[in-house]
Amino acid sequence: MIKNLESDTKQASRNDKRVTRVGKFLRKSSLDEIPQFFNVLLGNMSVIGPRPHAVPMNYMFSTDINNYMFRHAVKPGISGLAQIRGFRGEILSFYDIYGRIKLDHFYVKNWSLALDFKILFWTAGAIFSKNGAGY
User: How many distinct structural domains can be found in the chain?
Assistant: First the structure.
């Protein structure tokens, strides 16, 4: 691990040198998400909703993608429709971010308690599958 190497400019990736072995385990087991539950308890986040992006990425995507900010009509979530449909991790192409935003917009437009429970169920399945939820 190299401390603070590009920490403010580079998104985490699969073979990121900044991630330790312990960090890889935490990501693979989704234990790295536990601190976000404090944000849920504080009311800043929801368990289910569009995953938040870093502020610099929000700015960049909002200038490149029409209606990008519509995803902010609901609170950000620990897990979301885009993540359980495979759009998670590092953004390597326009397709990656476009797929996320398309599913985030679908979620915002079609929000229901039933949809939240489906996403929660699918998320639990991903966490407990042999591949895990993280990378």
Answer: 1
